Amino acid sequence: MTVDDTGSGAGADGRVDPPPVSNALDRGDPQPADPGGDPLALRLEQLILGAERRYTPFQAARSAGVSMELASRFWRAMGFADIGQAKALTEADVLALRRLAGLVEAGLLSEAMAVQVARSTGQTTARLAEWQIDSFLEGLTEPPEPGMTRTEVTYPIIELLLPELEEFLVYVWRRQLAASAGRVIQAADDEEMVDRRLAVGFADLVGFTRLTRRMEEEELGELVEAFETTAADLVAARGGRLVKTLGDEVLYAADDAGVAAEIALRLIETMANDDTMPELRVGIAFGTVTTRMGDVFGTTVNLASRLTSIAPRDAVLVDSAFAEELIRTGEAPASEAEAAEAAATAEKEGEEPPVYRFALQPMWQRPVRGLGVVEPWLLTRRASAGE
């Protein structure tokens, strides 16, 4: 639902008249599904929203003390459809507008930042809500008896689950917020908070397009879910951050090159041991990355994507900056000859030889579209470093 931004005019007495209802309708703006003809659907909406429909968009904006223009920007940013001047908003909608506007008035957020907060929250929760309805509630609301509708079963289920899921959502959000805040505090300076040096990795299922033509939709959905779940678990367990999933591809980031390398090899090894999964290929690059709304952008991200597209099956390709970072931190030798020399020197002096977790093999330089000539390195696990 989006507040109509048709504007309003002040009369001679200072009162503000609401915009004509016909403006939104004449523009062909999408209208909300009206559950008024279905009492159960209306009850379900009221249960979830925790309030009844009371306000038109104009009335909600006026009650919140927010201009129609700003209210419209907030609602569109949250991802809600235009509703003209239908009476479809609740007290909670008014409170949300008042809170966002209050943050701007108090100088805690700029107007542009408040809109970004609304947009990032809306996009994230929209995906979560879609998943919960499609995958979670669908399995729980199969009518247990003939003649019962799904809505009749859904209401008591949601009534029981809603408070628990709400508490869990807030808990996870606070945990993620604490982790993200910790990363910012550890940044060396203010610029590093936005433009940071990170390892960025793409993991891509090989031959996914061909699979979509051979597999049934349900079977394909199960494969994608298994891949995303496995990748998310491995990335989190090893200390990385899952940026996003794209069906047959996942994008992750890590502050440490060794962490990113371990995640990549674990992904390859895990998928190779699962006969139901296709082969995997991974590309990693290291460098400056711009972060916005939880996503990552820049040349480093583009390079990681290109490396993935040219990586052999069940293999990991990295760029030269990533290879240099592994060598600098002692995670990999510059060459096997150097590793042998370091081991011989340590033995001669009665010391423990250096332990390298990874091995790097330079590959042929090649042109990469949009990025010029790059020198990829093949990343593998050293035999002595396996767990």
Q: What's a quick, concise take on this entry?
A:
The chain is α+β, with helices and mostly antiparallel strands and 387 residues long. It has 14 helices and 12 strands.
Written description of the protein model:
Helix content is 52%, strand content 16%. It is built from 14 helices and 12 strands. Strand 4 and strand 5 form a beta hairpin. It is elongated. 27% of the residues are buried.
Describe the global form: elongated
β-sheet strand percentage = 15-25%
Radius of gyration: 27 Å
Mean pLDDT over all positions: 81
- How large is the count of helical segments? 14
List the quaternary state of the chains.
single chain
**Distance from first to last alpha carbon:** 53 Å
Q: Please provide the ordered H/E string of secondary-structure elements.
A: EEHHHHHHHHEHHEEHEEHEHHEEEE
List segments where confidence is low: pLDDT < 50 over at least 5 consecutive residues: 1-33
Largest sheet: 8 strands, mixed
Structural features:
387 residues, elongated, two-stranded antiparallel sheet, alpha+beta, single chain, 16% strand, eight-stranded mixed sheet
